[in-house]
């Protein structure tokens, strides 16, 4: 075997090298995807408990790959984050979501996921402001979903960024709530508009008293803090009934509709 130069690494760690090569080629593919418009958004309805109507949608990215078909976000977002392409991918999501939502006759809200890595870009607030200005979307119709990790690292500067975003008039949701740790403390550091209860709790609620207690604690607390709560991953009528009993304000899940491309966006519930 060759032991000199670049090949030495390959000799000792063929699997690492293969992974590195796959990542490099994925990075190049992703760059092309950005330029060719292969990154699209699917929209999943969010239903209001009070009115039983669709009040908004979460924008979820899909990569329409010419060779591999539809690629799911968990298969490319982490690579975009590692390579720094997430800044462009994230801007694409913001611009596209604002443009598409601006044309919706029902004027529902649109929620866009922000990667914690995007907070490392000092232009984030400017990018969001431009997406709003270019599309003409009313800021109140845009919601940004962040995860606890944004509050964990660089918390002071990130909280300042969140305040600046909020000053644009957009809403901020705390996603995947309950999956991190010391979650409750975060609610003091910033006034979130919405908490999204992670689907793992919704799905375990039927069998696990612990999961149900956590859902109950979140809805109880959110109710008194006047924060909206969206339960994610609602798949069954039994889950829906339970979540209504707990006083969740909004629901999202396959029971109401799967994420759909812009052209097939679900406009009314069946
Ligand atoms: P997330 O933000 O927690 O999004 C919810 C995920 O749950 C979506 O997966 C959605 O399709 C799925 N889901 C919705 N209802 C149900 C249900 O009833 N049952 C089950 N089992 N799943 C349901 P998806 O679309 O594969 O997205 C996965 C993750 O990728 C998202 O999790 C989010 O963290 C990330 N992501 C998606 N789009 C973007 C984006 O534009 N930017 C960034 N930074 N991340 C994104
Ligand atoms: Ca989300
Ligand atoms: Ca989530
Ligand atoms: Ca998640």
TrEMBL record:
Residues 23-270 form the EAL domain. Coiled coil: none annotated. This is EAL domain-containing protein. It comes from Phytopseudomonas seleniipraecipitans.
């Amino acid at each position: 075997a060759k032991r000199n130069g670049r090949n030495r690494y390959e000799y000792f760690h063929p699997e690492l090298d293969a992974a590195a090569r796959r990542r490099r080629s994925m990075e190049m593919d992703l760059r092309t995807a950005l330029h060719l418009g292969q990154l699209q958004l699917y929209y999943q309805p969010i239903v209001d408990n009070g009115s039983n109507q669709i009040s908004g949608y979460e924008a979820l990215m899909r990569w329409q790959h010419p060779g591999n078909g539809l690629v799911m976000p968990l298969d490319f977002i982490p690579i975009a984050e590692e390579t720094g392409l997430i800044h462009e991918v994230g801007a694409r999501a913001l611009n596209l979501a604002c443009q598409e939502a601006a044309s919706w006759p029902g004027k529902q809200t649109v929620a866009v996921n922000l990667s914690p890595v995007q907070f490392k870009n000092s232009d984030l607030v400017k990018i969001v402001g431009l997406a709003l200005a270019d599309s003409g979307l009313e800021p109140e119709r845009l919601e940004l979903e962040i995860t606890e990790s944004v509050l964990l690292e660089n918390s002071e500067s990130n909280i300042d960024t969140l305040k600046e975003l909020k000053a644009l008039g957009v809403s901020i949701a705390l996603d995947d709530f309950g999956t991190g740790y010391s979650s409750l403390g975060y609610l003091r550091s910033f006034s979130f508009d919405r908490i999204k209860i992670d689907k793992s709790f919704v799905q375990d609620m039927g069998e696990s008293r612990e999961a149900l207690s956590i859902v109950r604690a979140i809805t109880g607390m959110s109710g008194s803090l006047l924060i909206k709560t969206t339960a994610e991953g609602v798949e069954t009528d039994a889950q829906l009934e339970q979540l209504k009993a707990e006083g969740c304000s909004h629901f999202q899940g396959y029971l109401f509709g799967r994420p759909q491309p812009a052209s097939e966006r679900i406009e009314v519930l069946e």
